[in-house]
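User: Batch of two.

Assistant: Item 1 of 2:
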Amino acid sequence: MPELILGPAGEPGTELTIEAGDGSGTVRRSVLPGGIRVLTEAMPAQRSASIGAWVAVGSRDEHDGHHGSTHFLEHLLFKGTPRRTAMDIASAFDAVGGEANAATGKEHTCYYARVLDADLPMATDVILDMVTSALLDADELESERGVILEELAMNEDDPTDVAHERFAEAVFGQHALGRPIGGTAETIQAVPRDAVLAHYRRTYVPSELVITAAGGVDHDALCAQVLDAVTTGGWELPGGALPAARRHPGELKGIPGSGSALTVSRPTEQANVLLGGLGLVANDERRFTMTVLNAVLGGSMSSRLFQEVREKRGLAYSVYSFSSGYTDAGLFGLYAGCAPSKVGDVVAILDDQLRLLADEPVDAEELARGIGQVCGGLVLGLEDSGSRMSRLGRAEITLGELTTVEDNLDRIRAVTAEDVRALAADLVAQPRHLVVVGPFDDDVAARLLPA
C-alpha cells in the first residue's frame, strides 16, 4: 500500500484518501477554506470518537519575553470564551461521560477530547470555541499564573523530571529545543498578559489549525461542523488561503559541540542518572531502526539494560533507554534510578551496553525479539481512537506522510542487525552528556562522564 504524502495539498477543497488495508477503515484529508486541514480515520463498529485540534506551535516558537506563553495558553483556553464559562466547558464533557484535556510540546499544542460518537458535534464546537475565542481574561490569567507556578514547583520536587529537563538543556544547549516546555518560575512570573495575547493572535490562525479525529466519525459531517464552529468563533477564512508550510529544519545554532556533566544536588534517597546525547530527527528513515534499538537495549524486561542493571546486579528498579525526535534535532538517552553509592557502577554499565551494541551486531534471536516487541506494541497501541487521532496529527504536522499500519510493520521487519549496530555506533560518536540528580556534595557527574 503506497504512503499518503501530506503536504499543503493546494487550494481549499483538495482531498486525499487512503484505504487503510488493515481492516481499520479509511483515512481522509481535506483542506477547508482558510487553509484549515481536517484528517479523519473511520473505525467501523466504534461507538466512541476522539478529536484533536492542533496548532504546529510549541515552546520552541516563543519569542524572547514570551517564554512559557505556549503552555500558559494551554491552561487559559479552558478558562472561558464569550459563549462559555470555565464551568460550562468542564461540565459539557462531564455531562456525557467524556474526557477533555490538552498537551503542549516543543513543536505543537493539541486540545483533545474523547466522547461517544453521538457527542462528537458537541466536542467539536466546545474545543473550537476555546481555540478561536479564548477570553484570556486578566484576572483569570493572574489566577492561572499561580496554578502554573505550582505545577512547575511540583515538577522541581520530582527528581526524575528534574533529570530529564536538565538533560534536554544539556544536549540542546542554547537552541530553542533546550528550553523547558512550561517555562521557568522566572519566565512565568515575568510574562505579561500582552505577550500571551500576542502569542495567541500570532499563532492561533486558520492556516495553522489541524483537526484530526478517529473512531465513529463521518468525515463530511465533521468538516461542516468545523467550518460552522470557526465561523461562529469569528475567524475570517480567506478564499484560496493555503495551510501553513510544514516546519523545515533550520541551522542548529547553540547546540554544544562537546559533551558535558551536570550534578544537581537534591536530598533524595535515590540518584537519577541520565547518559546520552543527540539522536535522530523526527522523519529520519532510521527512526524504525531506532525503535528496534530501543527495544533491544532498554525497552523491556528482556532488554540488555534491564537484564544487566536490574536482574543480574540488582542496581536499579527503573532502567530504560529512550529517544525523541524533532524537526531538526533529536535526543537519545539511557536512564536509571539507583542508590547514590552505586552511580559509578550504573554509569559504567550504561556506557558499556551502548558500546557493545555499537561494536557487534545483535544475534538473530535478539533481533527477532526486538522486532516482535515493536510490532506488537505498535498494533496494540492503535487499538483505541485516541492513539489513531494522535497518529494523524503527528503525520500531518511532523512527518509529512501517513502510512498504513502494515507499511510500518514492513519497515520495522526490514531492520537488520547491521542497521542496529551502525545506528548505535553513530549514537556513541555523539558528544556525551551525563546528568546526575541526588544527594551529592561533589560534582560526581564530572568524575564519571565517559570519554
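Item 2 of 2:
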Amino acid sequence: MTSTTSPLPAIGAKGLRKSYGDRYVLDGIDLSVPEGTIFSLLGPNGAGKTTAVKILSTLVTADAGDLHVGGHDLATDPQAVRATIGVTGQFSAVDGLITGEENMLLMADLHHLSRKEGRRIAAELLHRFDLVEAAEKPASTYSGGMKRRLDLAMTLVGEPRIIFLDEPTTGLDPRSRHTMWGIVRALVSDGVTVFLTTQYLEEADELADHIAVLNDGKIAAQGTAEELKRLVPGGHVRLRFTDPAAYRSAADALRDVSLPHPRLRSSRGGARIDEEMSLSIPSDGSQRELRSILDWLDSAGIEADELTVHTPDLDDVFFALTSGADQPMEAIR
C-alpha cells in the first residue's frame, strides 16, 4: 500500500517557548512552513520575531518545543540545520572596508569552497544582484539598497534551500524595496523556502503565502492575507450613483428594509450614506455575502452606476490584533 503521509514542512515548530528571566518572549507558538513558500511573521517591536529567527537558525537555544528545519531536529542535529539554511539579519553582515567581490570571496572561503568554485559563484551572484559594476569598490561606498543586495548575495553563496530574512528591507527606499521583493520572488520560484519577518505590512501582503501575527509572545492569528483581512470588521460594498433620484430611492430603500443576511444589518437599515451619492453596505467581501447583496438589490430594483468591494487591509488586521482589543479574534489554522 502506498504511504499517504505528508512530507515534513521546511520549517516546523510545536510549543516553541523562550523566556528571559520571568518574561516569556515566545510562549508556546506553533508554526508550519511548507517547502517553496514565503512565510511572514508580523508583530510590533518586542513581539519576539527576531528571537524566533535566532532560535530556528540555531543562534539561540529554545527553552522548549519540537523544532525541525529542513527535516532535521534542531535539538539533536543543529549542524545539519546550519548546512541547510542561510540568514540575512536586521543588520548588514557586509564588511565596508573591503570590496563587494572580496566580501563574496570571504563568504566562499567560510563555506570551504575551492578558489575556482568560489570565484565562479561570486561572479554569478554579483551579476544576478546587479552588482558587477560596483564589485571592485569598497562596500562602504554602497547605497543602502546595494548593501542589502550584497548581504543577501553573500547569504546565497552556500546555496541554502531555506532562508531567514529578518526585516531585510528596513530603511530602504520604495524602489530598493521593490527590487528586493523581486529577488525574493525569484528565489522562491527556484524552490527556496523563505521565512520573512517584517514591520512593513504591504511587504507581507505582497510576498507571503502565509502570515502569522505575533503579539506578546503568542500567535494572535495566522492564515493567508485574505483570510486575515476577513477577521476584522470594516469591509463593505460601496454603491455609487450619478442620478440624484436613483440615489435617494436607494437610500430610502436601504433605510427602511433590513438586508437579507444578519451580518449586514445595522441601526440605519444596513447602509451608511455619505455626501458623494454613494451608499456603503457592511460586508466581509465573501462571494456568499456579495451574491446575497446583489440578489437583494435586484429584488429592490436598485441599479447603481458603480459597485466596488472594499475589505480591510493588513494595517487594520495588525492594529486589531496587537492593540489589546477586548475581544481577541480566533486564529485561522
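Residues 236-310 form one domain.
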